[in-house]
Amino acid sequence: MKTLNCADAGFDCPAVVTADTEEEVLAIAAEHARSVHGTTVTPDMAEQIKTLIREA
Question: InterPro entries, per this entry (predicted)?
Answer without folding.
Answer: DUF1059
